[in-house]
Design brief:
2 domains; Arc Repressor Mutant, subunit A; alpha+beta; Jelly Rolls; six-stranded antiparallel β-sheet; single chain; 10 helices
């Protein structure tokens, strides 16, 4: 990491289905990517800027960046001194369960705004982290449920179903399925379009409309997500790189860090050790605000 930057990406064993990131970034720039989980990022210092779909938004102290699963977004410093944040990544099933339990919302839920100005909720996110760091399972679980219910009540609801798919959207879905099956040695855009009976430009436009990024960017993101699954299962990073189609481990390292925030080796070590302290990855000074 660049000088002055530091990050901890970890899990607390008593809070299953939730990843935690506590970081300070200055020159770090996250590539356009997605998560299978929700993202609650409480900014404690500085400003984070990020593209959310087609908009550039900013989040500062006391605010929370909210990202729904499978929603393309980026991330970079909004001020020269960078930003510090504590992020929780709750699994979608956890959020759906809380929505059903507290608000009687059943089905696909999500958030309507990418940035929420709610200092109390931001403190709850910080509280989840601190409780996990202290090994206080009751507090960590309670605070997670409180902040999720609060966000759903004020800024969330049932996700509106998508309208019927056009022919272009169907081609985009077929292209995605083909790329998932051929992560190693994927076809060119021209070949992919020809196989689907459309033109390269029409496919490119349809794919971006449906998935928020062009096919090659989506493929890189999909490779990183698949690599995370392999790393979680204990696959060595070099082997994971080959399985998902990166030319070597250095390419995996670069793209993984640009999407996840830490290198794959550190990510795997943090998730493979026992206990909340041993599962913590650190670079730089040990304390963050």
């Amino acid at each position: 990491m660049a000088s002055g930057e530091r990050a901890r990406y970890w899990q607390y064993a008593e809070l299953p289905g939730v990843d935690l990131l506590h970081a300070h970034y200055i020159r770090k720039a996250f590539a356009r990517h997605t998560h299978e989980t929700f993202v609650f990022a409480a900014i404690t210092e500085g400003v984070e800027a990020f593209h959310y779909r087609d908009d550039l938004v900013h989040a500062g102290p006391g605010q929370i960046a909210l990202v729904n699963p499978d929603t393309p977004h980026t991330g970079h410093a909004g001020v020269p001194e960078g930003w510090t944040y504590r992020t929780i990544y709750p699994d979608a099933e956890i959020v759906r369960s809380i929505a059903a339990d507290t608000l009687a919302l059943r089905g696909s839920v999500g958030f309507t705004s990418p940035v929420v100005d709610d200092p109390y909720a931001a403190r709850l996110v910080v509280g989840v982290h601190r409780a996990a760091e202290e090994g206080n399972a009751l507090a960590a679980d309670s605070l997670l449920r409180l902040v999720t219910a609060r966000m759903l009540r004020s800024h969330g609801g049932i996700v509106t179903p998508l309208p019927p798919r056009s022919a272009g959207a169907r081609n985009a879905a077929r292209a995605r399925a083909l790329l998932e099956d051929r992560m190693v040695g994927p076809p060119t855009l021209e070949r992919l379009a020809a196989d689907l009976g459309t033109s390269p430009f029409a496919l490119l436009r349809a794919f971006r409309d449906v998935y928020g990024m062009p096919p090659h960017t989506w493929l890189t993101d999909a490779r990183v997500r698949r690599a995370r699954q392999l790393l979680d299962a204990g696959t060595p990073p070099a082997e994971a790189a080959a399985v998902v189609g990166f030319t070597d481990q250095s390419h995996l390292n670069r793209h993984f860090t640009r999407s996840v925030g830490v290198p794959p080796g550190a990510y795997q070590r943090a998730r493979g050790s026992a206990g909340p302290v041993a599962r913590t990855y650190k670079t730089g000074p040990p304390e963050l605000p």
